[in-house]
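== Sequence entry ==
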Amino acid sequence: MKTLTRWTAVAAAVLAVAGCSSDVGKDAAPVALIVTNSQILQTLDLNGGTGCAQDVGTINLQATIKNPNQISDQTFNQVRVTRYRVTYSRTDGGKIVPASFVRTIDTLLTPGGAPSSSTKFQLFELDSLLHAPFQSLFPNNGGRDPETGRPIVALVVTVEVFGETLAGERVSGSTSFPLDFCFDCGGCS
């Protein structure tokens, strides 16, 4: 149990840096909030083990001007990122997922500026890995997901980031991490 708690704390924090997949928020603001990720782990062993003492991945936030020819003053197009929401969906046919949650953050992005790499994102509540659907993977609970009959729970973690320009126009973007959870399956990779 000590290993699970340590791993949960490590997996909960994802440092923002650079990435590969993105979703540009669709809104009327002249600025787009681009959220990308670079995934490090895809398989997470709930029993810990080799490779589990690292972050799941990194998240990068960047603001860009949608039409640079129409913007002369960047000041009011800076984006203040104020919160993020984490949601889950199953990809293995199961329906039970952890509860979604919202966290506040405070980051100011300048369009055309360097990507933000200073925000930590939490992908799971600290005790969520001890509840459905994950608890069924523990040997004392049968070692299999009751919905799928498999020893793995496959889901996608989606991080939606929200903010607004200093002019008051809302912006958002999101990125996702596909993850497979198992118990005593050889560590994290």
